[in-house]
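Reading is simple: the token line describes the chain's fold. The lines below illustrate.

. . .
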Amino acid sequence: MSALRLLRVAAIAGGLPMLFNLSRLVAAARGDEPVPGIAWALAVVSLLFSVRAVVTEYSRGPEANLQKDLLWGLALGGWLTIVAQLW
């Protein structure tokens, strides 16, 4: 994996928890309650993105690197969001 790919994955994975937290703050400011079970929902979606990233990594060639990076970033970002929520 090249340095550019790692940078793209890290940017997506790092941005997702920040955007999720911003979304929660906006919802709290409007008076909305936190959604019960959101960590479980994020875990399921992150697992699906992880499986899809692994399959895409081994089944597609270098022409799909942007798609692969997006999938890896979303998978890792989802897991980071769950860890940040539990922390």
About this structure: The chain is about 85% helix and 0% strand. The radius of gyration is 15 Å. The helical segments are 3-30, 38-59, 65-86. The chain has a mean pLDDT of 94.
